[in-house]
Amino acid sequence: ARSIDLAVIPGDGIGQEVVAEGLKVLSAVLPQDVKLETKEYDFGARRYHATGETLTDADLDALKGHDAILLGAIGDPSVPSGVLERGFLLKLRFAFDHHVNLRPSKLLPGVRTPLAGEPQIDFVVVREGTEGPYTGNGGTIRKGTEHEVATEVSVNTAFGVERVVRDAFARAQARPRKKLALIHKNNVLTFAGHLWTDVFNRVAAEFPEVTTEYMHVDAATIYLVTQPERFDVIVTDNLFGDIITDLAAAVSGGIGVAASGNINPSGAYPSMFEPVHGSAPDIAGQGKADPSATVLSVALLLRHLGYEAEATRIEEAVAADLGERAGQPERTTSEIGDALAVRVAG
Amino acid sequence: ARSIDLAVIPGDGIGQEVVAEGLKVLSAVLPQDVKLETKEYDFGARRYHATGETLTDADLDALKGHDAILLGAIGDPSVPSGVLERGFLLKLRFAFDHHVNLRPSKLLPGVRTPLAGEPQIDFVVVREGTEGPYTGNGGTIRKGTEHEVATEVSVNTAFGVERVVRDAFARAQARPRKKLALIHKNNVLTFAGHLWTDVFNRVAAEFPEVTTEYMHVDAATIYLVTQPERFDVIVTDNLFGDIITDLAAAVSGGIGVAASGNINPSGAYPSMFEPVHGSAPDIAGQGKADPSATVLSVALLLRHLGYEAEATRIEEAVAADLGERAGQPERTTSEIGDALAVRVAG
Ligand SMILES: CC(C)[C@H](C(=O)O)[C@@H](O)C(=O)O
Ligand SMILES: CC(C)[C@H](C(=O)O)[C@@H](O)C(=O)O
C-alpha cells in the first residue's frame, strides 16, 4: 500500500488557515489506497516567544523522517525582523539542501492581472536556494556608531550553480517551448556573474535543443511587465529569484495563487512546499486569505512525490475555481477550500 | 555673466543620437546671457578597442574641471560584459562620489503604461550610488574548475547610508505628500539591513513631518505594479535601486522617458546626468531612439546647477510632446529633439 508521511507546519498568521485548506484538498484528491499520515509542528512566533527556539537540531531530526513538508507561513511583527526568517525558514532550506526553489507563474483564464491587455503568462522560475547573498556570511563592526560597517557576502560555487542550472535545463528541455533564460547582473557582479554565465554556457552545450538567453535582472523586471510571454523557464540566483518571483506572482494573478517548492532533487532530505505569500498578520484569523497558493503548493508536493495525476487534478480544480470567480461574491478561506475539495474529488 | 561648462560623453550605440538632441534642447532653453561651453569625450567601446583604456586618471582629472557631465550610454556587445560598466561607468560614479542616484518616475498624461487602469505614478527613487554590492569587492578562486568559488561583498557604512538617507528625507520633506519608503531586505540581509533600518529610523526622528514606511524589496516589486500611487520618495541601496528603477521606468512610460542624475550634493566633483536606458545597439544609428530620457536628464542637470525655471520648461515640453504622441506617426530621434527645442524656446 502506498503512503505519504507529511510534516505540516502551519506557522504564523494566515498560515494556519491556508494549510487547513491545503490538507482538506489533499485528503480529497488522494486515492483510497494511499495512506496519508500528517504530523503537525508548532514552529514560528508562538514557539519562539514561549521557548526562544526557532529550529533545533532535534527538530531537524524529526522533520528529516517525513516524505515531505507543507508549510503555511512564518513571520510575525512581534518577532524582530530576520529572527524567524534566518532562524527557521532559511535554516531549514539550507539544512535540507533545498537547492531548487521552484516557482511557476501561470496566468489562468479569468484571473485578474495588473497588466493591461491579455498577456500570456506561463513560465517557471528555478531559483537557487542554498547560496548567493542568502548564506548569512558577512558581519558588522562598530555597530551603532557613526563608523559602523556592515557587509553581506554572496557565496557562489561551481557545484551549487551547476546543479541548479542543470535542473533548469532539464525542465526547459521537457517543456514544449524549450526556452531557458539566465537572469543575473554579470556586468556589475562580475565574480559571481561570470561563474553563473560560464557554467550556464557549459551546460547549454549538453542541451542543444534548448534555446537560451541571458538577461540582466534590471532588464528582466521590464520584460516581466512588458513581454511576460517571452519567458518559459528562468534560472537565477537566490536573491534575484526572490525579487523576480514576487513580481512574477503579482503579474500572474497575485500572491494569492503563487505556489513554490523548496526541492532537494536527490531525496536525501524531504522537500518543502509553501505558498510564496507571507503570514499577512493584518488579515489573519478572519477567513479572508485565499488558500489557492497553498493548494497549488500541495499540487507541487504531489508531483514531487510521483502523484502526477492528482497534482494535475488539483491544478485544474484551482484553474476552474479561479475562472468562475469574476462577479461572484467573496468567499471565505474555508469556502474556497471546500469548493476545491469537491472539485478534485468529483 | 553666467556660464555652464559641460563635459559631454555620447558613448556607444544610441548614446550619440540622444545626446545630440539633449544638447539641442539645452541650447534652446538657456537664456541668452548664459554661456554654454561643451567638451566632448570619446569614452566607450571605440576608445576601449583602440587603446585598451576605459577611464584613466588623466581622464578623471579632465572631467573634474567641468560643472557637470551629460552621458548618453556606455556598452557594446563587442566588449566583454562588465569591462565598460565597471571600468568606466561605475569607476566614474565612485571616483566622483556620486552617492545620490536620483531617478524620478512620473507617468505623464497620454503616455502608455503596461499597467491596466489609470495608475497615478509620481515618485522619485533615491538610490545609493557608491556602496552595496557595487563596490567590486569579492573575488574568485579555482576559476574555471568544478571547485570554483566566487564571492561578491556588499559593503555598507553608517557614513554612506546616513548621507543618502538624509538626502532622501530632505527630498520627501520638500514634496507635498512628504512620504518616504525604505526598501531593503532586512529579514535576510540582516547585517546591511539592520544598518539601513537603524540609520533610517534615527534620521526619521529629525523629520517628524515625513511619514515613513519600510518595505522588503520583493514586496516592493508587487506594489510597483499593483499600487504605484503608494510611493512618493523611495530610498534604497545600490543594487535594489538598480532593479526597482528599471521596473519603475517600465510602468511609468518606459525607459524611453526615464532620466537619472548621479549626484554629488557637496559639489566637490561634477555630477553626471544620463538616461536610465542603455546603448541599445540593435537600433543604433537608425534615428529610432527616443531622446526624451536624455532631454529629461538635461532638465535634472539644469535643476542641479540652479536653473530651476529652465528645468521645468523642459519637463513641461516633454510632457506636452508625449501627450500629443498617441495616434501620430512615429518621428525620428532628431524630429523629436527639434520639436522639443521649439517648445522650450517658445
Ligand atoms: C521570508 C523570506 C526569508 C523569503 C525569502 O526571501 O526567500 C520569502 O520572501 C520567500 O520568497 O520565500
Ligand atoms: C550599466 C549598469 C552598470 C548600470 C547599473 O547597474 O547601475 C545601469 O543598469 C544603471 O542602472 O545605470
Automatic annotation (TrEMBL), chains A, B:
Mg(2+) binds at D218, D242, D246. Substrate binds at R93, R103, R127, D218. It is found in: Cytoplasm. Its cofactor is Mn(2+); Mg(2+). It catalyses: (2R,3S)-3-isopropylmalate + NAD(+) = 4-methyl-2-oxopentanoate + CO2 + NADH. Its main location: cytoplasm. Belongs to the isocitrate and isopropylmalate dehydrogenases family. LeuB type 2 subfamily. Residues 5-340 form the Isopropylmalate dehydrogenase-like domain. The lineage of its organism: Bacteria, Bacillati, Actinomycetota, Actinomycetes, Kitasatosporales. One of its GO terms (molecular function) is 3-isopropylmalate dehydrogenase activity. Keywords: Amino-acid biosynthesis, Branched-chain amino acid biosynthesis, Cytoplasm, Leucine biosynthesis, Magnesium, Manganese, Metal-binding, NAD, Oxidoreductase. Homodimer. This is 3-isopropylmalate dehydrogenase. Catalyzes the oxidation of 3-carboxy-2-hydroxy-4-methylpentanoate (3-isopropylmalate) to 3-carboxy-4-methyl-2-oxopentanoate. The product decarboxylates to 4-methyl-2 oxopentanoate. NAD(+) binds at G278, S279, A280, P281, D282, I283, A284, G285, Q286, G287, K288, A289, D290. InterPro entries: ICDH/IPMDH, IsoCit/isopropylmalate_DH_CS, IsoPropMal-DH-like_dom, LeuB_actb. The record marks Y134, K185 as: Important for catalysis. Its EC number is 1.1.1.85. Binds 1 Mg(2+) or Mn(2+) ion per subunit. Pathway: Amino-acid biosynthesis; L-leucine biosynthesis; L-leucine from 3-methyl-2-oxobutanoate: step 3/4. It holds the Pfam family Iso_dh.
